[in-house]
Amino acid sequence: MEMDNVILDAWRANNRATSYLVENLPADVWLAALPDSPRKTIRSLAAHLHNSRCLWFKSLAKFDGFRMPARVDPLKVTPVALVKALESSHRQMLRLFEAGIANGGDFPGVTSRFIWGAMPRNALLFLAYAVSHEAHHRGQILLVARAAGHRLPSKLAGGLWQWSSRLRES
Fold first, then answer.
1. Cα–Cα distance between 23 and 19 in angstroms, integer?
2. Which contacts qualify for 84-88: CB closer than 8 Å, 24 or more apart?
């Protein structure tokens, strides 16, 4: 398998894992507040995943024809609306990766080696950055739900690790 296909498939599996989590969270968990932080909820953590993608696009999508997805309201977004937004930002992430791959690895029009001192402009390095960011918050969502006393379906956490299944679904 060529490296460009591996990069795109890794992103597809990651995105599907994120959507899978949102789709399978029980309704009572969606509004659960973080301990000692009642204004932050699992909903706002989940919304952060899509909104972070939108923030990344502002720095990395410096090529013609890129369509910026709309951000979601972390205080109001529903699971169905968030899954739809994640699909929109997913398609644009694929376009971003494709542009970087076509440009020899670095995103076109981005001149700094690292954005904000941390975020790489190289497609492969950025893939690692983006996947680790989303995995961190998926784990955080599971941990907060459990800490708030919510019993999650066993297929939920295990399903996040079934990347071959998530990739087939994507």
1. 6
2. 85/50, 86/15, 86/18, 86/19, 86/22, 86/49, 86/50, 87/19
Closest CA to 15 of 57, 50, 44, 51: 50
Spacing of C-alpha 61 from chain mean position: 16
Question: Which pLDDT tens digit goes with each residue over 41-54?
Answer: 999 999 999 999 99
Q: How far apart are CA 5 and CA 72, in angstroms?
A: 29
Judge contact between 123 and 56, C-beta under 8 A. no
Rounded CA gap, 82 and 77, in Å?
Answer: 6
Tokens 């709309």 found at: 70
Question: What pLDDT score does 115 carry?
Answer: 59
- By CB atoms closer than 10 A (0-12, 13-18, 19+), residue 37 is exposed
- Whether the full predicted model's pTM is greater than 0.70, yes or no, is yes
Distance, in Å, from the CA atom of 47 to the CA atom of 75, rounded to the nearest integer, reads 9
Single-letter code of the amino acid located at 81: A
- Assigned superfamily of 3-169: dinb family like domain (1.20.120.450)
